[in-house]
Amino acid sequence: MRIFVTGASGFIGSAVVRELRAAGHGVVGLARSDASAAALAQAGAEVVRGDLTRPETLAPGVARADAVIHLAFDHDFSKLADNCANEQRAIEALGDALVGTSKLLVVSSGTGLVSAAGRPSTEDDAPQAGGAFPRAPERAAEAVAQRGVRVAIVRLPQVHDTRRAGLVSFVTEVARQKGFVGYVGEGTNHWSAAHVTDVARLYRLAVEKGDAARYHAVGEEGVRLRAIAGVVGRGLGLPVRSIPPAEAPGYFGWMAHLATEDLRSSSDKTRAALGWEPKGPGLIEDLEKLEWV
Predict the structure, then answer these.
(1) Is 191 helix (H, G, I), strand (E, B) or coil?
(2) What is the bridge-based pairing of β-strands 220-224 and 190-195?
(3) CA dihedral (167, 169, 171, 174) positive or negative
(4) C-alpha pair distances (Å), 159 with each of 101, 133, 167, 216, 285
(5) pTM of the complete model
(6) pLDDT digit string, tens, across residues 175-203
(7) Cβ neighbours of 103 (radius 10 Å)
């Protein structure tokens, strides 16, 4: 197959490109900059220039491919609302280019965007309606699906290796700024996680399977925030302390609500549907080896 990948030069996207190429698939990668274009070309991908702020640049990549994986998102959280709006327009543009075809569109979402109080979320749970976090890729994807496009959803947890670790990377930035590593209350809430190579393999399997379904790219159902804070503190050489919930917004900023919620997620149905079994290191193991400097 030939697969168009947005966000193809990013942390997860570059791993997906490697996985697809190793399995014999052709890749058409979206590149915003010369550096991204060069990296994609070196990885053996065909390059299409464009970005989410110009949704009209996405159609050429769709036309050259048999399926689409949408991974691009601007993680500048000082412009979160604008970036979420750009993401929605990009998904709409991909849908415009896919209407009338049988090509699969794989849209990336997050396990943290799903509400399941008191238990791990599952693939069957609907995304949160509204809330403090404005990202809503699944709502945009559903609108595309209603137009006859085949859409699959991959929900991402904290995706990690020894260089990056999802929201934990932002936790380290905050800790450096504040001079200590904070967690809320007892720190018994959880974040789910998966190694980046396992996530890349899941995307490949989802495209090869070709079903319009929801998948959870979850290797570990839940890792306690207190344990995460502890290993970050050791890595940075900073004290670790509990903060009351009322102080979470002042400490964590935009991700305060994520730092206070229990975001456990199951991937049992995904594993059964795709034959996917995570093999990579766990989050704590990678954090202990994180390249902090």
Answers:
(1) strand
(2) antiparallel
(3) negative
(4) 32, 19, 9, 12, 13
(5) 0.94
(6) 999 999 999 999 999 999 999 999 999 99
(7) 20
